[in-house]
Amino acid sequence: MKGIILAGGSGTRLYPITKGISKQLMPIYDKPMVYYPLTTLIQAGIREILIITTPEDAESFRRLLGDGSQFGLLLDYAVQPHPEGLAQAFIIAEDFIAGDAVALVLGDNIFDGHSFSSALPQCRRPGGGIIFAYEVSDPQRYGVVEFDAAGQALSIEEKPAQPKSSHAVVGLYFYDGDVVDIAKSIRPSARGELEITAVNEEYLRRGALQVKRLRRGDVWLDTGTVDSMSEAAAYVEVMQKRTGIVIGSPEVAAYHEGFISQAALRELATPLLKSGYGDYLLAAAED
Questions:
Q1: What's the number of CA atoms in the CB half-sphere (13 Å) around residue 220?
Q2: What DSSP element (H or E) covers 138?
Q3: In the predicted model, what is the mean pLDDT of the chain?
Q4: How many domains does the chain have?
Q5: For residue 14, what pLDDT is reported?
């Protein structure tokens, strides 16, 4: 399976901050926002990852992450000239996907939780599509999943005025190799975008969509606004200081997946000791 991080968009909900920097390069407590979705893909056992950015920000991402070899990854880059919907990512990434299964994670989504992390490796052979649902208080802001009495998905709607449930679709999607053709076949919505909901609806129509509900104790944070970024930073700070376990670290995730050695993790930690982040990496190497 391959992975895609969609880190494009103009970040208008964060203006004026994002007039000068990509929101996915902004800090969530002690690390860049993009580290968190990158960690999620690594936890799923994915090594080949494409990062889709705006043309203006591509070089900044390359400077931060390079070719990924320090994490035991193969990173590549592509640009999204204009944000025309999440499903556009699969069309941009067609050559990269090359018929393989693929995971898409949004660059401003943060996930945490033991049961969530444990479920990720099971998604590597989706046999259709696998998405996650999370119960929220404001489902009208998201794609919403309706379930039957047996817990099977009945329908998915994009930002409905009258949601049929309180379960929102989170920004992490696993699909088989059919997803490129499906993305090409859907038409733009009234918003003029290729909606990821339309992709999910097609998999649902085929009877090939699994919807996994995130369990109590799992955490999903969408950091697209100033308030949500501040809340996410506070969550990461509190959890790391309280438990001593680093959240959203690609270095630690790569070590746990066997992508890099203990010696390599220590080497990555050394230049980061002054910031305190390196201390977390050394602790992980000794754990």
A1: 19
A2: none
A3: 93
A4: 2
A5: 73
